[in-house]
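job 3f2a | input accepted
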Amino acid sequence: MKTSSNSSPAITPVPLGGPPKDSLSVLMLGAIGVVFGDIGTSPLYAMKESFIGPHPLAVDRLHIFGVLSLIFWALVLIVTVKYVFVAMRADNRGEGGSFALLALISHHLSERHKAMLLVLGVLAAALFYGDAMLTPAISVLSAVEGLTIVEARLQPLVLPIAALIMLGLFFIQSRGTARVGAVFGPIVLVYFAVLAALGIANIVTHPEVLTIVNPAWAVDFFRHDPKLAFLAMGSVFLAVTGAETLYADMGHFGRKAIGLSWIAIVFPCLLINYMGQGALLLANPAAVENPFYLMAPEWARLPLILLATCATIIASQAVISGAFSVTHQAIQLGFLPRLKILHTSARAAGQIYIPVINWGLLIMVLVLVIGFGESTRLASAYGISVVGTMLITTAMLAFLLFKVWRWNRWAAAGTIALFALVDTAFFLSNIAKIADGGWVPLTVAGVIFIILTTWAKGRNLLREQLQADGMPLETFINSTRESVHRVKGTSIFLSAARDGVPPALLHNLKHNQVLHEHVILLTIEVTEEPRVAAKDRLELSHVGHGFHRVVMRYGFTEEIDVPRDLAPATKFGIALDPMRTSYFLSRQKLIAAREVAGMALWREHLFAWMSKASESAMDYFQLPSNRVIELGSQVRI
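job 3f2a | predicted structure (637 res):
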């Protein structure tokens, strides 16, 4: 805490947090249950879609081995090398993901590069929402479709069952996931063990499938039929969807736990299962209808369906929770208005529930499940938003390697060139999916991008206008020092700017004609760091005549609680008696009246609507409802 008083006692800092301090085995079990749900359910559909998708392949040795080789090298280059060995080294105080990476490199860039990467970071967040609605739809639907393998007459029940699972999943979100999360790890661990067991049982019949690690099979595939091989990459890419989650969830489990889980457990189990599916297709090409379930003996298929469905529900839960986290970060960083956020755990601040996101995702998931009808058609829409995010991550890593880590230029250039080549190849292949459904996640991402950038731009324009219309604080104090009556107590006025007089203070003086004995002008700033140490939380300056300027800082992953975090200010002579402290908020009613520079009139209307729908600052900042006074005003933009 910084203050102008040098004799005041210091505040003991609290730990910054980061990954839980559990044992490595506990963290690995948690990572297996949460981080790898998405990529772990890819065997349900990736191999099948490669052969019976929009661009079907002949089920023969060349194509089976070619597809498997592509899957193997995609898992190696994208997941293992790019994310585990490189991206996960780029932690921002233990946190990962697009926003954390952006914050990590922004301090080392020029304003031009920073603005460009900011746009890319926002675009990555927008693309994530497209992935967040497709993952539950394709995962659960592909699992439930296994019922038709057990009994073909169950086909009419597939959509209703999948829809009911979705409804149940989204309806329990408000109750929190702490209890459910305790069993995620063991269930998914059993699921991966079953994947490996099924793979081994089939590999023994055709052990030559082990040779697919030789990239010559992929080369032969392209040499024999380059067009089909290129288009097949769009389906092969389904095997690596979920790779971004390894980096995004690094703050929850730590780099070591996630990396070791991938290398020692998840990667081998996935690879063995894919090889097993290939061996099955060599022995029985007709099994291409659903190689995942047909690997199992008939008596084991129904239990496998139940286990796979549980795994897809867990994968969906992880994506939904991720959508809540990304939304919270976007709000903190000023890209979304305040939304209602409920904390579902008294112990874990990261466990939150955002109703508008939850119900919005549910509607979109149900529309996708009902509209597309089957996982094969959904697979045509899946992947393009994910590979777009991966391309953006590669662009950010380029700045990281050259500007921040300052690798040898040839090593950095070679690494980024490899990542860019792989990502671009998959991106171009996925472009072919746009006409078959890929336009859906891109449209959603486009709408989200417009919303995020409109709110950020509108806030900046509004802040500039309020500052232009404001009054210098020194002038205000001098004009009120002798003429305004002071009453006992403390008033806290929230202000978006570090200087000037908050509109709420001017409105209060106009209507009530009095000022409190202590007046705190409070500005809340969200930094580019995930968390802020307690010693740096508050910056306090005594302006004089009972006025105090306080700046309260938070990281973009932290929960804002003004009463709790302002309490240490009492050590510096500021009275904060809960029963004699009032909070004054200014709520502007925005009117889009003209087109301003840099913002079209329709975006002004959108910004005004978003402002109206914004959650009250009283709830968002954890202010006591019985001590809050909201003062409204109209602002024309």
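job 3f2a | The chain has 26 helices and nine strands.
job 3f2a | closed
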